[in-house]
Amino acid sequence: MDDLFQELPYAVIKLNQKSEIIDQNQAAQAYLPYLGSTWLKSCLKPESPEPLLPGSNAMAGDECRYWVGSENRVFFAQVFNVAEHTDRLVLIGEEPDFHTLLPSSLERLFEDFPSKPDNVAERIVTLIQTALTFERFDLLRVDPSQRKYVYAYSIGMDVTGVVHTAYRTIRETGLGWLLQQQLPHLVADFSPEHFSFLEDPQLYASGFRSLLRVPIVFDYSIVGAILLASVNPSHFQVEHAWLIDRIARHVAHFFFHAGTLLQREYQTLANATLLQTVLADIPSEKVEEFLLLYCIQLRHISQAERVGISLLDQTKGLRCCIVEAGKELAGMTEWGPIKNSGVQEMLNFKSIVAFNLADPRYENIEEELIGSGFTAILYAPIENEQGEIIALLTAVTSDERALSQALAGLFKAASEQLGLILSRAPLRIEGTSTRRNLTASQIPNGFQHIIGSSNAMRKTIRQASVAAKYDFPILITGDTGTGKELFAKAIHESSSVAAGPFIVVNSAAIPSNLLESELFGYQEGAFTGGLRGGKKGKILLAHHGTLFLDEIGELSSELQAKLLRVLQEKEVEPLGSTKPFRVEVRIISATHRNLQHMVKAGEFRLDLFYRLNGIEIKLPPLREREKDVLELTEHILEYLAKSHGTPLKRLSAEAQEMFLHYAWPGNVRQLQNMINRLFVFVEGQLITTKDLPPELVIPELSTDKENEKDKLERLLKEFNGNKTAMAFHLGITRTGLWKKLKRLGIQ
After folding, report:
1. At how many degrees (to 10) do helices 287-302 and 405-424 cross?
2. Phi and psi (nearest 5°) for 318?
3. Residues 211, 166: contact at Cβ < 8 Å?
4. Per-residue exposure over 707-724, b if at least 16 CB sit within 10 Å of its own CB, e if not
5. How do 336-337 and 318-326 pair as beta strands?
6. Contact 478/620 with Cβ under 8 angstroms?
7. Fewest beta carbons less than 10 Å away: which of 102, 299, 316, 437?
8. Most confident stretch, 53-62, 242-251, 564-573
9. pTM value surpassing 0.70
10. 484-493 vs 455-467: helix axis angle to the nearest 10?
């Protein structure tokens, strides 16, 4: 069995269809002499041994039984079966709830389990990546009442013919089966004779030969799903189904509450958009002006480069943009055909759809966007009260943000509001001559959205803006949370390739077995499971634009060598290709690690370091930015007040002094998180020192030598034993804090 199963303190025994032992972990070998001669018969017979007594901690759906073995030792057992697979597991331990324990390396990931919705999804991804390998992974969020789903995270090989949708209705698919059965589904050897669901032919055509689908169930309802696929037959086995099922059970309540917070945030932002528009006191008869102000507010909140509303005439197959905020595009304000556009895909799926414009399959999805510097576009249908799609809401971004769950959630709520408005105040546009110019002025591109007037920040912005004018590779260094991606995007928007795409690759977030194909792409036939026609990698997608390589220090030595060739030859050779492809791309890389030390340690190539470090931009930590912390705080509080439609909050003079004297080890990211918490929990409009967390009010008692146990014991005293407040301060869940305290033996 895999190493993870050897970490378990209880027995895991794998049986075939004939109930013969075919595999087991080390704990099982130690247990077998004490189980008795009839243990297997006792486990598998439904009438014996006795069911586990009421009041145990066994989870719903677990049939845990017990019996007395040799030396009067009491054993508890659970049998795990999975649909579409004949093998099964028998798990045996000496405590009623033994099977709730995960391997120790996974248990540690639950100790500091985050509470922020985005971080919850990231942690689940980390758990799955630690548990097993795959070529495709989708984490879905499910609304069981509406039978709709949205992608919370996706990575890996593309699926043939699949369009990026959000809040699409669940049909007779594998997800539909999970919704109905609430059980894992495993197809170890996937072939046409095993086709059961609508998506199976597409999955097979994409090269996948082993599938695992696991529901995330909370309070007897499915709230999400983990979908895994591999190109290798028999890659997923019953033990993997059990492990992922256990992970799903452990994360279910975190995932559910994160989803609730996200939906509340989306609805709040959409409501704030409507509220801000109404507060502008627009006369009711001037509907177009009303909609324009709505788009201006929505663009501000979503941080998209362009937001627009278009009317549809499906009988004639035409659409026309009536209002737009942001970058004005020629031709968008005239009646044009729906056919062969992203609008047509939205109508086909009857849901939100989004496209990566850097992907050659979709680069012509909107001809007006070609050469405009946009990377992604989102279409959200607007329905009237009868459920008919009468208009659409669009968002265009210079990066891949339009593909995110966050933007999909916000625009879903916004499109529902607009549906109500347009149903009750319908618009009629006969032609372009009657349309007035209602476009909003565009926020200047470049560095003006970066907050900070300190000498250190002005110097850094000046250096970056000068470097942007030249096509040399740029290396952005600095501590975690200093805003490296923000600077990279600003450099792109100020450069000569601003009209091209801005493609981001986080080297630390993509599994190592997928990173090469993500970066370089592959030709058809390069390996089993490749898409028909192959796939362009991120480098080719960034052609005539900018490729931002975040956490460049995490690249393997093999990928370092391949990237060096790209920089030297300006050519990319996809996997399986017999010839290289010419590429013109601006390379910006970033890292929080010291690459020079890595070079000396043999962990990073010296020649690649010099290639990437054409110009180094070092971002100053927040502690060196003088009063920037107050400017940033004011900006964040203004944004939160405006986006949530609440009165503006501010820091007292004493609180400002505390902010200025704090070291901010987590930099701007830590400041943002702290302001978010203060905005939510401070009831008045003035934030005083008594509202601040202990590390700001009390001088730092911790040192570099303070270990984890000392820190937690100190915080317990500072919070007077209030574990809920302490967990909130640490940014983890109360359960995670309890696990830490238990592991370290702290009462």
Report:
1. 170
2. -125, 155
3. no
4. eeeeebbebbebbeeeee
5. antiparallel
6. yes
7. 437
8. 242-251
9. no
10. 40
